[in-house]
């Protein structure tokens, strides 16, 4: 483990165009459940599985039940950035990290100080009326009851998160692809790389080194230049950022 941390330190020291691609495992150390871990949302007891509840069809047909689950499991607003979020923000401030591409919707990267963040699956912190487009924050959604309605026009408010059956935002995808294509180093962390099309974006990398940090195995384990199978916060927390 120590040798791998030293190798990662050397990579960070020698490169100034790094992009980070992350998933749910980045936020589990902040207390936000991973969809597919043993203690994650897929192992909770609900009348429907999470992938059904978090679908566009379910949102339309069973909006109140969607929001019961959404408030309970998706709006973890008291979560704080962990060592991984903080180190990535520090790397960006030092000019080493050019972008964060994340599958998470919790906003913890921005809360830690990261500025260039491509949120592939949207954010719980942005919510819009489906009728007039009025904006509502996550606190409003958390405090609302039943189906939240717009105070201006009475329309149903929908989170700006990508549900199953919905497509990713094209501008976000294009920005993420550009960042990955121009990176010298791609650090992939906290993701099982099974959620597509998001996971497919790593294929656009043409740079020097791929670093993979994930507790479990992934489809990229054999192709990574450096593989560290440990919690990402524990790994990145040991890295020193030097300009």
Summarize the structure.
With 243 residues, the chain is an alpha/beta fold. It contains 9 helices and 9 strands. It is found in: Cytoplasm.
Across the major sheet, the strand order is 3-2-1-7-8-9
How far apart the termini lie comes to: 24 Å
Total discrete domains: 2
CATH topology of the largest domain: the name is: Rossmann fold
Low-pLDDT windows of residues: none
Strand content: 15-25%
Binned, the helix content reads 25-40%
What's the average pLDDT?
Answer: 94
Cofactor: Zn(2+)
Protein name: NAD-dependent protein deacetylase
Active site: 121 (proton acceptor)
Binding site for nicotinamide: 35, 105-106
Sum up the structure in keywords:
9 helices, 9 strands, Rossmann fold, 2 domains, elongated, SIR2/SIRT2 'Small Domain', 243 residues, six-stranded parallel beta sheet, three-stranded antiparallel beta sheet, 30% helix, alpha/beta
Tell me about this structure.
By secondary structure, the protein is α/β, with parallel strands linked by helices. The protein folds into two domains: 1-32 and 80-121 and 167-243, TPP-binding domain (Rossmann fold), CATH 3.40.50.1220; 33-75 and 123-161, SIR2/SIRT2 'Small Domain', CATH 3.30.1600. 30% of the residues lie in helices and 17% in strands. The strands form two sheets. Strands 3-2-1-7-8-9 form a six-stranded parallel sheet, sandwiched between helices. Strands 5-4-6 form a three-stranded antiparallel sheet. It starts with a helix and ends in a 7-residue tail after the last helix.
